[in-house]
Amino acid sequence: MPVDPSLLLGLERPARYLGQEPGARPNRRPDARGRLLSVALAFPDVYEIAHSHLGHKILYHMLNSTPGFTAERVYAPWTDYEERLRSSGSPLRSLESGAPLASFDMVGFSLQYELAATNILNMLELAGLPPSAADRPEGAPLIAAGGPGASNPEPLAQFFDLFFLGDAEASFLADLEIVKAWRAERAPRRELWARLAGRPGVYVPSLFRPVAPGQALLEPLGPTARVVRAVAPSLRGAPFPVCQITPFIKPVHDRVVVEIGRGCSRGCRLCQAGYIYRPVRERSADEALRLTDLNLAATGQDGAAFLSLSAGDHTEIDRLVKGFMDRHAPGSVALSLPSLRVRSLSGTLAEQIKRVRKTGFTLAPEAGTDRLRAVINKDLTEDDVFVAAETAFRLGWRTLKLYFMVGLPTETDEDLAAIGRLARRLKNLGRAKLNLGVAHFTPKAHTPFQWHPGSETAAVERRLAAVRQGARVPGLTVKYNDPGASFVEALLSRGDRRLGPLLLEVRRRGGRFEAWNDFFSLDRWLDSLKALHLDPQELLRARGPDETLPWDHLHCGPTKAFLLKELGRAQAAEPTPDCRWAGCQGCGACHDGAAVELAAGPEPKTALEVGQEKGTEGTAAGVGVGARVEAAAEARVEAGAEAGAGAGAGAGAGAEAGEGLAAERLPADAQDARADLEASPAKALRAEPRPEPAGEAARPVAAKAPPGNELEAAYRGEPFAGLTGGSPSGLTAERPAAATAAETVEKFDATAKTDSRPNSAAGPTPRPQPGPASWQPGRPGQPSQPGQPAQAGRPPAKPARGGRGRVPAVVQAPLEFRYLARFAKEGALALLGHLELVEVFKRSFRRAGLQLAMSQGFHPQPKLSFLTALPLGVPSLDERLLFSLSRPLDAARLAALMELPEGLTIMAAKLLPPNSPKPRAQAGLWRVQTADPVFLGPPLHPTAHLRYTDSKAGPKDFALADFVLNAEAVDPRQARLTVRIGETGTPKPLAAARLLWGLDPEHPASLLKLATILDRDPLG
Prior knowledge:
By secondary structure, the protein is of the alpha/beta class. Helices cover 25% and strands 16% of the residues.
């Protein structure tokens, strides 16, 4: 295990730090010269957010599929784990091997959101590395960064050795080859800077310095005066992982992600992503579907997302969606389109998406009036919004989300009041739940509004208050960003190198997780500004068109001249058409062989050709709001730490398309520096495709057909007479004898022979005999029999109601095959929580090609349940899983088919007969072990009451004599308890043992579950 388990016990979510997930396979193959460059991919936020970032996954697979490079992951530890690391003196380590961060050749951070900057400094501190690049010795790892935040890296410049701008697949591996050779030579860093200077997309901040101390203006120290981003000319055939890492815990966006397009030329003037990711390049429908099929088969996930800054603009979107649904809807795999524009929504498209499930529907009008939408170049009218909402309601959506932005250039009080009026009118359309998310505009680098001033907190608060006042309607919920966080975001997004000391001061005062409401402190930032004599008004001021901006030495897409032209058009509320349909607008983003490339047709077509085919004839038809696909922004707007996103955790992956059709994209100002966690084109680093699996492994999950026509025929026949005997006469208090899977897995007899004896390859388990050091309460050894269990089999289908003179139709319920399995949960996997364990098994079934039967209703769920739930961190040798398959399976093959992580082992499985009662857990046999001899005889307090407060259920009071059916000291350091499972609660075994033997409630001890005791046990 990469991390010492003792450091993880008692943490809020210890599975964040386990590693070992399926698909996490670092490369260990050196290059032809025997060299291996190690890279730690660092994300400055918690696991749930970091794992949702597609660019991070692609870069991981890109490096690990190339000999000579190896990549591992490291994420920001949550505060409880950080305290453990500091108190124990343990450094921050990678997930895969547990190697200290300081031992890698390079540490690469993803810059998604400005307020995550303090987490970067904290992670370097936990790694034992000086934060400032100038203070790190020659042998220290290179600290590098990429992502949308690198479009203005100056506030972070003093902390980083390198920044990578643009599309990494263009030249990133070639850059790292230079780094690898430099490392092998053990040359000084200045030699590396000389080799990298002038390369596309490589920015070395130490090669630029302020003209004067405390000045924003920079001058080059070498021949390179301007850094031009790297750009990939095409996505066609670009490397992409075919086995994305499958998480143990649920991330913010829990699905397979495939990038179908990069870049957007809609020209929304507030959207940084729409400018720095140009030109538009699409992946073909056939390629996108192939990648989706392979990743679903490899991961076992039940959802996928097609990502782009404007997914609905993809020239093959209808074929993409229909092709996906035809393949995967039968397997209940859902599709998300997080960036579907209003005008690209059609009834056909929506009908396809909702074939599996739907929840919410998202619209982003952005502004309250058509005038202000024209200013920001959103060709979207109020009528368009109403048509989209009516379409959603007609198709069955009952949750509507609206996203707006306040503080936009030229905004008036009338624009703010119009937001409330529009929301109220939409609320009156139907009985929908309406959620209104409001973000504050932040001017971003490389956009037409980069000259616009930022806003101080008082102005942000006033605008938000006006919207809240106008939207006071029953059934309408308003959620918004923290005004102070918007103020700090504006400072950092437009800042220069003077803000490096500010970040250090904020970190010194305890700043970290500043993107989370629970940790953000405006006073900390204001006090730090005051201590450094920095004037926020001067930092936020408007910039003149002739002024040199802190990021002018970085070319990240459109030219400055084009952006100034767009600023003039914004002031005149004039539109700028989309170059895909109206021809080149002269933005300057196409260079180094990159140009607009669309997927329609067997070969790439020009934008003008596709536009003519669509009948647009050069018009700006369909120009509308761009895509917003970031979990962090939505989490901030929704002001929650739900799903671990917290209040604006940067790096989020996108306005949750799994929550519905994101028919519009949130304005980019609050997220452009984060960009799209899932699309993130600037970080979409591709891995060379691995060899595609042959045969069964290459098929989509839903296409696999488990064998067993004979089994199915037998199951449709007479019910088994086998497993219907009465309950056992007593509770077994020992673990069944150990046996191999081959010995314990029963092979289902297709002839359905009658066998009245429960199957058990291990044989019957002897009943324990009370010894001198045991205690049994003066009550029956078996708990009171529970009520009659519900029948697990399906009732006979009822005839459908028919009209007069009609013959009622008989509806046949889908046939299901119900199984019971015994498995062990040991080692590091004991730190998985109950819900996390459910997901691990669900995905393992899908990877094995075994289709779980689904429940009925609005949101179908796989039929899979555990008979008991283990305490977090407690291993078990005998857990029980009940599941139903839609096709029969030879139970003896289950253990071999299921690719479970190390620590989970299926030991036995059995097909249950139709209509048999569901087995019920009645008790558990537990072993308590201590390092010192404390179990010196029988229990001292057998009639004691165990009282404690459960964090969820409140106060608990258990009479141990009613629950502890057997307790004995096996030896002075070990005791065993048989604890009955109560209908309204069960005492904690470890706490019960401490009380029974009179130990201190905090006395160190370990717990192991030896057996689960059922009322009837088909597995013996």
